[in-house]
Every structure is written in structure tokens, then in C-alpha cells.
Amino acid sequence: MEDGLSVGEAAAKVGLTAYTLRWYEQVGLLEPIPRDSAGRRRYRLSDIERLDLLTKMRATGMPVRDMVRYITLVREGDATRAERLAMMERHRTAVLQQIDDLQRDLAVIDRKIDRYRGFEGVAGKKAGPRRP
Amino acid sequence: MEDGLSVGEAAAKVGLTAYTLRWYEQVGLLEPIPRDSAGRRRYRLSDIERLDLLTKMRATGMPVRDMVRYITLVREGDATRAERLAMMERHRTAVLQQIDDLQRDLAVIDRKIDRYRGFEGVAGKKAGPRRP
DNA sequence: GCTTGACCTAGAGCGCACTCGAGCTGGAAG
DNA sequence: CTTCCAGCTCGAGTGCGCTCTAGGTCAAGC
Known about the structure:
2 copies of one chain form a homodimer. Chain A has one domain (7-118): Multidrug-efflux Transporter Regulator, Chain: A, Domain 2 (Orthogonal Bundle), CATH 1.10.1660. The first copy, chain A, is built from 5 helices and no strands. Chain A is flat, with a radius of gyration of 23 Å. The first copy, chain A, has helices at residues 7-14, 18-27, 45-59, 64-76, 81-118. Chains A and B meet through α3, α4 and α5 of A and α3, α4 and α5 of B.
């Protein structure tokens, strides 16, 4: 039991694939992951924590490009805190917007469902125009 | 002023591009759009209405493949009402789940923002481990 | 009558975010 | 020892949902 998780374990833990984890590292979302004596990656807690945040950012629709930008800022140190905060605040707003849009669009779907249910079991509408 | 909208007008109205409208027709999301004397598409109200629904379905994350399936059912007539209803209900559930997930993930982003704000203007943390 | 601009078709191309194939290595279990 | 599995690298491939190019037609405005 060495310390840290293998790529497979880490992948399982954060809900991504091993492929994706290696790719995230390659594109600069993760720091180069330390290797064991055989050259295999060992993910530390800090790597997993970063991944936890990254997955939330992705899941809320942040493009990988922007996440890379964010991580670049992280690497640049404290001087970029304000910019990172701003990024996150902008993203937060975008997510709220997204939720709002979803709710609005869902209302349309709901009305459609109501209409389907309203006609359920009713005979009529033989040759009337079919509404999607 | 002929009746119906040109592809450009229809696109503008539903918030898609003319390219996309033609492509939607090609993949079977729209019925073949009637043409004017010069062979140009004229979108009727019913086409626009269908597009309005389709855009909501897309915007809530339904894959085009499923939308095509849905429209196929529409074309098959009343016999498929139940299946269409079921599709919509399943999709509705998926959207609710999506909103839920977004809210959960947003909470993580929010905590991150709080931490950034908590340290705002504070000097310390010279050489401490940088947290993303 | 000419130009302009929107439209037409068929098919190619693109951006994104992974995902996988091929060929190899190395530690662990029977 | 051999078999096996997980991991390694590099580069290519995939699926989705558009988006654009090329080469042409047509009708309206100057």
C-alpha cells in the first residue's frame, strides 16, 4: 500500500476515466502527478481535491479551456486571487442563468406533458392536425 | 409578402441558424418545408411551433437522436401518444435531475468563492500550499 | 441590364471533450 | 517461471451538433 491512488483508483474516486485523468494532466489541469518506482502515477490527496473541484466546474458547463486558464492562475500564485475570484463569480452567474433557463424550458415541456395527459384516453381528433 | 417565413427569418425567430434549420429538416426533425415558386423554403406557423418545442428539448439536453425518435412517433400518429408522453416524462425527470445536480455543484463553487472572499485583502499564506 | 444578396444542394470540415489502439513495461500471484 | 493485470506513451479516432465551402439559381432594386 503505497501512499496515493493509482490512476484507476483516482478515476473511480472522482468519477472520470483513467484516460481522462491522463488527458487532464496533459492539457495542464493537473500538476505532473508523482510516479512510483515503476513510473506509475500516484495521486495525492491534493490532486484528488483539485479533481473534485475541476469536476464540479466541468459539470456546471465550464469549458476545459477556461478551467485551464483558472489553473494557470492558480499556478501563478497569490497575485491572481482576484482574477480567480472574478472567474468563479462570473461562472456562478452563468450557472444560475443556466438553471433559470432550464426551469423556463422545463415549463414548456411540462405544458406539453399536460396536453398529452389531457387527451389521454380520449377518442377524438381523428384527422385533425397532429401537434408534435 | 408571401405567407410563411424564409429560412433566414425562421432562423432568427427561433434562435438557430439557417444552416441548422436545413440540417434539422435533413435529419428528419422537420417535415419537408414547402417551397415557393423559386424553390425557397417557406416556414409555416406549424413549422415554427415545432421548432419552438424542439429548441426547448435541445436546450434541456435532449440528444438530437432522441428528438428524431420523438418526431418519428409524432408522424406515426395517435397510436404513439403514450410512448411520446413517456418520453417526455422521462425527459422531464432528467431535466429535474440536471437542475438538482447543477445546484449541488454550484454549492461547491459557492464555497470556493466564499474562501476566496474570506482571504480577500488578507496578507498571509506566504508559502503555504496553494489551494486551487 | 446588371449587381446584389438571399437562397439552393452536396458534401466536407470543425471544435469539443474525450476515448481508444498499439506496443511495451513491470510488479504480483499461482 | 509464466501469466496476468494495470499502467505507460504517443498518436489517432470517435461522436456530437452543428457550420461552412463551392458552385450555382433567382428575383428585386438601381
